[in-house]
Amino acid sequence: MSNPADALDLYAKVEDMLGVYEAAPKLYAHYLLALREIDFDTLLDVGCGSGDFLLQMQGAFPGAYFEGIDLSPEMVRRARARGAQAECIDLCELGGSFDVITCVFDMLNYLSSEELPAFLSCLTKRLNPGGYLLFDLNTRYGFKEVAVGAFIAEDEDRFLTIDSAFDAEVYTADFTLFERRESCWHKSYAHIRQYEHDADGIAEMTRMQIVAASPVYLYGEEADKGFFVLR
Fold it and tell me: Does position 53 have pLDDT exceeding 90, yes or no?
């Protein structure tokens, strides 16, 4: 699939088969604790997916305004169906400004080193003075020891295979999905890439300071993610 939104839409169809929902509470806890230390009224979640993080944080901070954006029409449809304020729009085309911007579940890892500076430039323009950026990044251990390999999952109506590798700071994954539609099976394919980044480089590009950092252990005794707060 050459269209990134198509790959994201395929991911939306299989997200529940990947163990994301089981791991999410451990990761969300880092964001929740950080947000409790911040005085904010507005929050934008970039790459909001199906709205799970937005809705949980909205429940924790009922007095604040929460909005999400995602490039996948299917993800945004699901988020809206659950009651989240979400829009299918590129960050650089979005108006308004926010006290906090979040990039949850390795969202920044989907951007290449060439794409990241322009994205971060648009991001900082959406932040209010003194605003915060909260994000998590995959560690090299997370890429090489957790994500790499062959993966198969299935249920009554879906059969999914993922073949992945990590080489030269780039993680690649080939998703092949078979979906049952009445008496036939429909096949779809997506090639997804992620890129290794470090928080110091992101801080330098945004001209922000790292004010908090902590390791994240989702799948074992070694950190597979790092969580960071920039101001």
Answer: yes
| Backbone φ, ψ for residue 40 (5° rounding) | -140, 155
Q: Are 24 and 52 in contact (CB under 8 A)?
A: yes
Name the token pair of 135. 């994000």
Q: Which residues pair with 195 in a beta bridge?
A: 170
β-pairing, 98-103 with 86-87?
unpaired
The phi, psi pair for 87, rounded to 5°, reads -140, 140
DSSP state of 51: S
Cα distance between the two ends of the chain: 37
Cβ neighbours of residue 219 under 8 Å, at least 6 residues apart?
Answer: 23, 142, 146
Residues 6 or more apart whose Cβ sits within 8 Å of residue 156: 180
pLDDT digits (tens, 9 = 90+) for 147-198: 999 999 999 999 999 999 999 899 999 999 999 988 899 999 999 999 999 9
Backbone angles phi, psi at 74, to 5 degrees: -70, -40
What is 22-34 written as a DSSP string?
HHHHHHHHHHHHH
Structure tokens at 219: 């799948």
Q: Is the pTM of this model over 0.70?
A: yes
Domain annotation for the chain: domains and CATH numbers: 4-139+197-230 (3.40.50.150), 142-192 (2.20.25)
